[in-house]
Amino acid sequence: MTDCILETRNLTKEFSGFTAVNGVDLKVQRGHIHALIGPNGAGKTTFFNLLTKFLTPTDGSILFKGRDITRMRPADIAHLGVIRSFQISAVFPNMTVLENVRLALQRKLGVAYQFWRSDSMLHRLNDQAMALLEDVGLGKFADNITEELAYGRKRALEIATTLALDPELMLLDEPTQGMGAEDVGMTTELIRRVSADRTILMVEHNLGVVSTLADCITVLQRGAILAEGPYETVSKNPEVIEAYMGASDVEHA
Taking the model in full, what pTM does it have? Predict the structure, then answer.
């Protein structure tokens, strides 16, 4: 049996008369990988911004594990275990790979910016940081300066820093954007591995990735839900085929 970890009810966001998210009722089941797809301008990123409180809804509510979090601050949402990985890689380029993950662990402990802490205290986190790097395939790059990493490995590092915050619900925003085929495959397998004991809601444009990973897919069009279900059902929906990318792209992704 699964249960609902995240739910939105009539979630709506208007901007000066333009409705970007229009009455969305969404349920994400615990332990699932749930994908949010749709054409450009469908409202996917706005929806993510509402979930993480970077935007305030015009109407509707957001519930996490049955608790209304609609009016909570972004930091409080993160403390509950809802952690977002951004569309653009958000790591510190001039720090080492290990230091990036260690800083995320410090944030989890509430000492992220206490730079007066002794090296010995910080090094206690190294084993945990290395374990996370091994989980995402970056163990041998621990001492590399982050800006030297290939793009796909930077995204893997971002997922490692997200994992360091111990998320119960991970929100992945276009995790394979801008990647070549090799990096897409690596990232797809990484997401599959880290989804164990976690729930993932992802915005993703690559339908091959979606078809491989997602237990459930929600299609947005003009801010509203157009269709929902497993890939096999959604990909054959005539409205989705018409609205999204064309029959050949949807069916053969």
Answer: 0.87
